[in-house]
Structure to design on (263 residues):
């Protein structure tokens, strides 16, 4: 059933999540879990030992959903109804792909894989912008970690300008393990780092490649950085020495595209 924007949706079990992806209240979250709603993360009030909340947490974890503690201020800030009852779920706007889905997409196109790996991008606007640019540049998919990262929320979808509907996004538990697996699949791992030893324009991005973009504040984590084959630096000529994460991703992606087009 379709609903016009000016008509309220009925609040029944199994209905889609609200437009902003927020599902709040114990019964609403329990029904969303029971209905198989794609949930990105569940926040439960820190210190609560309620049986219903414990049931929500255990059910969510059994489905592979991240459960995080949150203080009352955070939940109050997220709440739309002001009656969250100590639990808020954030629905994913679409199902996550698998890493194999992304690699198969490259095979289907007969192209060397081009992946973007985001190392703990917590700002949903940054993640959405990266997904948008990756889709425009012809990347085959984006990979994010399950924890300490924005997910496929409504804000990410909006910032991506619809790219989340076209580009597969996978979520993994451990990025260093993921990078090792990609190496076994024949991909070279290029990490973006201000102190990288390889200039971007000297890097060969024509073959199978994964481009790793670090977090907004501290860049790549140590283990992720150590797993990269190359640490690539973007030339900087101004007084500042760093770029926004989504801007860095755009520069790397379009250099890879330029090289692949042979121009």
């Amino acid at each position: 059933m379709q609903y016009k924007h000016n008509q309220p949706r009925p609040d029944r079990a199994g209905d889609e999540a609200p437009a902003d992806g927020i599902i709040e209240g114990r019964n609403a979250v329990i029904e969303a879990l029971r209905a198989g709603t794609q949930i990105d993360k569940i926040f439960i009030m820190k210190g609560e030992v309620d049986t219903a909340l414990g049931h929500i947490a255990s059910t969510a974890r059994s489905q592979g959903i991240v459960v995080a503690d949150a203080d009352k201020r955070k939940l109050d800030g997220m709440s739309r109804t002001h009656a969250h009852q100590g639990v808020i779920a954030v629905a994913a706007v679409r199902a996550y792909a698998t890493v194999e889905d992304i690699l198969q997409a490259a095979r289907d196109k007969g192209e060397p894989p081009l992946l973007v790996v985001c190392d703990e991008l917590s700002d949903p606007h940054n993640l959405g912008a990266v997904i948008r640019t990756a889709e425009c540049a012809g990347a085959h998919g984006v990979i994010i970690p399950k924890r300490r990262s924005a997910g496929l929320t409504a804000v990410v979808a909006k910032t991506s300008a619809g790219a989340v509907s076209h580009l597969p996004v996978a979520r993994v538990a451990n990025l260093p393990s993921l990078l090792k697996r990609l190496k076994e699949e024949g991909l070279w791992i290029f990490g973006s780092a201000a102190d990288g030893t390889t200039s971007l324009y000297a890097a060969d991005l024509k073959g199978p490649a994964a481009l790793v973009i670090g977090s907004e504040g501290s860049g790549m984590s140590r283990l992720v950085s150590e797993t990269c084959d190359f640490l690539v630096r973007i030339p900087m000529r101004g007084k500042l020495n760093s770029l926004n994460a989504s801007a860095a991703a755009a520069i790397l992606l379009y250099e890879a595209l330029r090289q692949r087009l042979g121009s």
